[in-house]
Amino acid sequence: MKLLLIYWAFLILGYAAASWIRRKSPREFTRLPALMMVTIYGLCFVMGLRMGVNEQVTSNLGVIGLKALVITIFCVAGSMLAIFAARKLLGMDRYGTVKGKAVELVAETAAEPVAGEIETPEAQTDAGPSGEEADSSSMDIRSTIILLSVVAAGMVIGAFILAPRGEAFLDWFDDRSNLTMVVLLCGLMLLVGFDMGHSGMVVEYLKAAGLRVMVFPLAAMVGTMVFGIGACLILGLTLRESAAIPLGFGWYSYAPIVIAEAGQQFMVASAISFMHNVIREVSGIIFIPLAAKKIGYLEATGIPGIAAMDICMPIVARSCRGDTVIYSFAIGFIMCIVTSIGVPLVMGV
User: Fold this and answer.
1) How far is it, in rounded angstroms, from Cα 155 to Cα 162?
2) What digits encode the pLDDT tens for the residues 267-306?
3) What is the spatial distance between Cα 198 and Cα 59, in angstroms, rounded to a whole number?
């Protein structure tokens, strides 16, 4: 609970500082994304080191990957089914329309401008991907490959260089690496809060969403948790681990770290959580256009989890209708809040 309060203090501090700067002297912080990625890479490298020194993780990598894939399939399916059920109960069609009226955007989205008249669903769905979207997806996939490489490098160093150095060193390393992850997480939360405050869009999006739209984050979370916990229990994980893993909602740079902080006995669960969250985000990048065309716009926003409010927003804006971005942002934002509170509480960190 103490660490949770510290993380949230840094998040709020970052948001408040960026909001104040935006009001006093608006300017672009072009290096902010790069700084966030460096922090994420640092977190993932340390996590890789901790996984590498844990023999239980290194000897079960194939099983860990398979479990992560199964959990992801269940979580995504649960999220989409719950959103589908919520949409039907609210009398909305597959384009997110009630009685022929779409939710109206009150401002440009942070991901992609939506101006003028909203395109018809048929026109947007049949159109091919723009060059900008293709470049964005390519960059996201490259970032994921780099991220996996960083974790893999950490695991190799941990397994072949650190692990043979003896129990006394490993005890020292466990304490120091845990402290390093806490410090880096505080830095990441500060940057995340700063990014939200600098965009100035959080309040506007939530106002535009309204109460009806807020049903869908709840549906996506309930579907994810019910199906995810079920899959984890079937795969032999403990109830505590089974609740924490799907509760990550795709936040691979936060949830696995918090799970790892709970102790070495949870390193396998942390590894599964990391792989699951990475797979979920990549699934959003790849499958949102297909799901939007074949299933429904709102269901497509439930695939990536938290990434629905950042990396996947341009893909949602292009693959769906402009106003669908509001649903996408609401799902990602509410999931982000729940994850930042829920995972530490479940793990007792």
Assistant:
1) 10
2) 999 999 999 998 998 888 888 989 998 999 999 999 999 9
3) 44
